[in-house]
Amino acid sequence: MNLLTRVSFLAAFSLIAACGKNATSPIEVSLGEKIGFPAVFLEAITDNVKIEDFQINRGNCNHSSQQLPADLVFGRRLEIMAFGCNVKEVSVKTDHGDFTYSF
Q1: 3-state secondary structure of 64
Q2: How far apart are CA 102 and CA 57, in angstroms?
Q3: Which residues, in sequence order, are bridge partners of residue 69?
Q4: Which residues contact 29 (CB under 8 A, 6 or more apart)?
Q5: I need a surface site. Which of 27, 54, 79, 81 has the fewest CB within 10 A?
Q6: pTM score over 0.85
Q7: How many domains does the chain have?
Q8: What CATH number is attached to the domain comprising 63?
């Protein structure tokens, strides 16, 4: 096998391997307000998802404590109130993978 064929093979393999990492998020994330504070809503859009951890603004925003892990079924949501910040980014670790949402 010549060098050009090897390089082409490795490039093709890398592209195929990268495609497998694009998981579809099992939740929808939206912003709102609750009791006068910014709120983040994590809603399940798959049959079952476990929210294992989350961060708001890369850990730089205080939020209401939630009992984690939280198991959600389709249509159920977790409500998280943010204190003293504008929500710009939410990172969520689930049993389906890790996802980051920007606003």
Answers
A1: coil
A2: 9
A3: none
A4: 40, 41, 42, 43, 90, 92, 101
A5: 79
A6: no
A7: 1
A8: 2.60.40
